[in-house]
Amino acid sequence: MLQRTRRLSTPLRYIITTVIVLVLFAVPELLVAGIPSSYSLTHLLIAVLLAAALFDHGTGLFATLLCAALGYWRNLGPAPSLGVQDPDVLVELALFIVVGVTMSLVLEALHRAVARQQQAQDELRRSERSQALLLREFRHRTRNDLGSLVGLLMLRARLAPSAAAREALREAADHALALARVHARLALDDGLDQGAERPVIDSREFITGLCSDIETSLTSAGLRPVRLLAEAEPHPLSAERAVPLGLVLNETVTNALKYAFPEDRPGTVQVRFARDGEEFVLVVTDDGIGVPPEGELEGAPPASPSRDAGLGTRLLRSLAAQLRGRFARRPGPDGAGTVVELRFLVAEPGGARASAAA
Predict the structure, then answer these.
(1) Residue 202 forms beta bridges with which residues?
(2) Alpha helices in the chain (DSSP H)
(3) Per-domain residue ranges for the chain?
(4) Residues 256, 339: Cα–Cα separation, whole Å
(5) Would you say the pTM of this structure is higher than 0.70?
(6) pLDDT at position 355, please?
(7) Which positions ≥6 away from 358 have C-beta within 8 Å?
(8) How many Å apart are CA 44 and CA 67, to the nearest integer?
(9) Which of the pair, 34 or 255, is modelled with greater confidence?
(10) What is the pLDDT of residues 7-55, one digit of tens each?
(11) How far is the C-alpha of 108 from the C-alpha of 105, rounded, in Å?
């Protein structure tokens, strides 16, 4: 409202100010019969306040002088005298002018301070929108570049001269595809535009969405008799931590779907993400034939070793180290299936903490 009133034309502002002063000046005459010729002008400070607040310091000063003039006229002595006989009235008029001028200047300073703050907030919002746009564009280009890289690696794999080279290129394409999935889910999150110091995502939407992408990609739209169940608590995670978390999830779930259920064996892969005290815990469990021991599992069910067994474990441990966490893999209950667990602190590196939802 103040922005609208301050944009009124100058003549209209001064006309409204005059009306306000005259109305407030006449109030005592209307409410109190037989008012003495000498009375306080204190109530006329309301007119100065309204004029300076609604318009600008110019109208506030005008209201001050007009009120003082009316007060001087109201306290004139009997005709033909043109002066005020009571010196106390003159002192009151002088104090009124000083107070009115001070109020007008102070309110104008407040107006300008608020205007500067509003301008700064507008610039900040524009900057945030620009940063969000740049971030979206960056993630979009990242996804496109990773998609092009996957296509190039697969093409080179088909043209490779040896089986080992073809397999290495396919593995590289798989890892690039996993990274593309993670970045796609980060780009879809709406929490990146909320003005936080760092982009954050919701762990439930991120993990369940990523599991849905993996299931669609690896189970041929439900043709395989394997179910992928995902449960995740909603917690804010920084994008920097979500990337390695998503890669761990992709690697473990992909391994389970590829190697735990050979020959169209039915089964279930369960994914759970929750907070346990001061740690976040990601658990991937399957009831398949078991993942090969890779030097850390004893008594695991026999299974054909996956082609990237050693590399996969090193990759998972490296990603856990990025999260300042711990990675472990063990046989499931009664030796059936496999349980993979990733634990990392809720506290962000450097002392910042990711606040958890209640």
Answers:
(1) 236
(2) 2-6, 10-31, 45-54, 57-74, 87-159, 163-188, 203-218, 239-259, 309-322
(3) 2-122, 199-345
(4) 10
(5) no
(6) 41
(7) none
(8) 7
(9) 255
(10) 888 899 899 999 999 988 887 766 655 555 445 678 888 999 999 888 8
(11) 5
User: What's the chain's length in residues?
Assistant: 358
Spatial neighbors of 207 by CB under 8 A, at least 6 apart, are: 230, 232, 246, 249, 271, 273, 282
Region 183-211: mean pLDDT is 71
Strand-pair partners of 284: 271, 340
Buried b (16+ CB within 10 A) or exposed e, 239-274: bebbbbbbbbbbbbbbbbbebbbeeeeebbbbbbbe
Q: What are phi and psi of 227, to 5 degrees?
A: -100, 140
Residues with Cβ within 8 Å of 308's Cβ and at least 6 positions away in sequence, in order, are 171
Nearest to 257 by CA among 297, 293, 217: 217
- Which sign, positive or negative, has the C-alpha torsion 259, 300, 315, 341? positive
**Which CATH number does the domain 199-345 belong to among 1.10.10.10, 3.30.565.10, 3.40.5.60, 3.40.47.40?**
3.30.565.10
**67 in Cβ contact with 37 (< 8 Å):** no
Q: In what order do the strands lie in the sheet with 326-331?
A: 226-232, 267-276, 279-286, 338-345, 326-331
Which two three-digit tokens encode residue 49? Answer: 């306040």
CB 201 within 8 A of CB 183: no
